[in-house]
Design goal:
Order of helices and strands: EHEHEHHEHEHHEHHEHEHHEHE
Bound molecules: D-glutamic acid
Radius of gyration: 18 Å
Shape: globular
Strand order of the largest sheet: 4-3-1-2-9-10
Distance between the termini: 33 Å
Number of strands: 10
Structural class: alpha/beta
CATH architecture of the largest domain: 3-Layer(aba) Sandwich
Helix content: 40-55%
């Protein structure tokens, strides 16, 4: 039987997933990758379960139509609100031999090992926080760990509008970090549970007491993918390996190219596609 081979798909509501792609391609440069940012419909963080599920499924189907057998949902909000339903309900129908992986489980698997006090702060979008996905997943791997969550609804708009390094961003960084710390003085580890937030890393780190570690997801997700491909040679075989990367956006490609460098660290060329 012929195996359909294709690139690995990497998806986010906008630019954030590029912070994950950057780490994935650094660790696994041999694979081909397609990135899709649903910029026309970003942000997902404040949208309903149904809407995020509907948008994410459409994007996953787009990757499948382009020959991808493996798609990484490099967006916490979409991982929290859509992934399980796609894996359980849709995949058996639209792609029984295909796989869609998220960013929450790989982070939950390791985050407890960073903390000495066993008190972890999760900073994410409203959607990620209200889904309770992190407390539920972390409990499976670290039952003793206490998880404190803080929604940071202004951070993605600040980043998407390139205002994150300006003084205006300080107000919201201070506000949300203080709100998190007010929940527990024992927090010693903070996970940036939104793929956009690494762009605010320096400000977040500076706003927190120095003993608190701030953890970003890109490297964690990259290692987890490497491990997955080793454990699943049948999936590895379906991924082409020519070291190529292509970038797609559902909004204007010139805008995407201008902003993407901030997240990916290198200039890129993008194409606009229509989805939905
Ligand atoms: N980057 C997405 C995440 O990791 C959120 C961005 C959005 O709100 O669309 O949650």
């Amino acid at each position: 039987m012929l195996t359909q081979k294709g690139p690995i798909g990497v998806f986010d509501s906008g630019y954030g997933g590029l912070t994950v792609l950057k780490e994935v391609t650094a660790l696994l440069p041999q694979y081909d990758y397609i990135y899709l940012g649903d910029n026309a419909r970003t942000p997902y963080g404040s949208r309903s379960f149904e809407t995020v599920y509907h948008y994410t499924l459409q994007c996953v189907e787009w990757f499948f139509a382009r020959g991808c057998s493996l798609v990484i949902v490099a967006c916490n909000t979409a991982s929290a609100k859509a992934l399980r339903t796609i894996q359980q309900k849709n995949l058996p129908v639209i792609g029984a031999n295909k796989r869609v992986l998220g960013v929450i489980r790989p982070s939950a698997e390791v985050i407890g090992s960073f903390s000495k006090t066993g008190h972890i702060g999760i900073m994410g979008t409203q959607g990620t926080v209200s889904s309770q996905s992190y407390p539920l997943e972390i409990k499976k791997f670290f039952p003793e760990v206490k998880v404190w969550q803080q929604a940071c609804p202004m951070w993605v708009p600040l980043i998407e509008n390139n205002e994150h390094l300006n003084a205006g961003a300080d107000y919201f960084v201070t506000k949300y970090t203080q709100q998190l710390l007010a929940q527990s003085a024992a927090i010693d580890t903070v996970l940036l549970a939104c793929t956009h937030y690494p762009l605010l890393f320096n400000k977040i780190k500076a706003a927190l007491p120095p003993h608190i570690q701030v953890i970003v997801q890109g490297g964690i997700v990259a290692k987890s993918l490497q491990n997955y491909l080793m454990r699943h040679p049948e999936m590895d075989e379906k991924c082409t390996k020519n070291g190529s990367k292509s970038f797609f956006t559902t909004d204007d490609s010139k805008n995407f190219e201008q902003q993407a460098g901030l997240f990916y660290g290198l200039p890129i060329q993008a194409m606009q596609v229509e989805i939905g």
